[in-house]
């Protein structure tokens, strides 16, 4: 089981959290005028990085706060945890 260090609550089991995807994913600036390609890129296409990867996580059963984790996708080692401050994208 992955043990996640919430920046607000401390280390907790992964069952308390919800994965929010790659960060940052930037929503089209003008949704009404966005092309189908822009929407497809926003909704479906991700880097699928091998190695260090920046992800959004929600502490669902704790503080209910979003935060960022840099995690190695091969080893699951968490190398950095930080607040969402200054990150674009939906949270």
Describe this structure in words.
The protein is mostly beta strands. 9% of the residues lie in helices and 36% in strands. It has one helix and six strands, in the order βββαβββ. It has one helix at residues 36-43; strands spanning 3-6, 10-13, 18-22, 52-58, 66-72, 78-83. Strands 3-4-5-6 form a four-stranded antiparallel beta sheet, with no helix packed on it. The protein has a two-stranded antiparallel ribbon with strand order 1-2. A hairpin with a 5-residue loop joins strand 5 and strand 6 (78-83).
Summarize this structure as a short list of keywords or feature phrases.
two-stranded antiparallel sheet; 4-stranded antiparallel beta sheet; mainly beta
Low-confidence stretches: none
Strand order across the largest sheet: 3-4-5-6
Q: Give Rg in angstroms.
A: 14 Å
Proportion in β-strands: 35-45%
Strand segment tally: 6
Q: Residue-averaged pLDDT, rounded?
A: 91
Number of helices: 1
The ordered string of helix (H) and strand (E) elements is EEEHEEE
Q: What's the shape?
A: globular
Structural class of the secondary elements? mainly beta
Helix content: under 10%
- Largest sheet descriptor: 4 strands, antiparallel
Alpha-carbon distance between the two ends: 24 Å
């Amino acid at each position: 089981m992955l043990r996640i260090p919430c920046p607000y609550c401390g280390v907790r089991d992964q069952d308390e959290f919800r994965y929010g995807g790659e960060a940052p994913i930037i929503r089209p600036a003008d949704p009404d005028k966005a092309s189908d390609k822009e929407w497809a890129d926003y909704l479906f296409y991700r880097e699928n990085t091998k190695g260090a990867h920046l992800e959004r996580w929600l502490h669902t059963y704790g503080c209910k706060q979003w935060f960022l984790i840099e995690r190695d996708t091969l080893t699951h080692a968490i190398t950095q945890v930080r607040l969402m401050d200054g990150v674009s994208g939906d949270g």
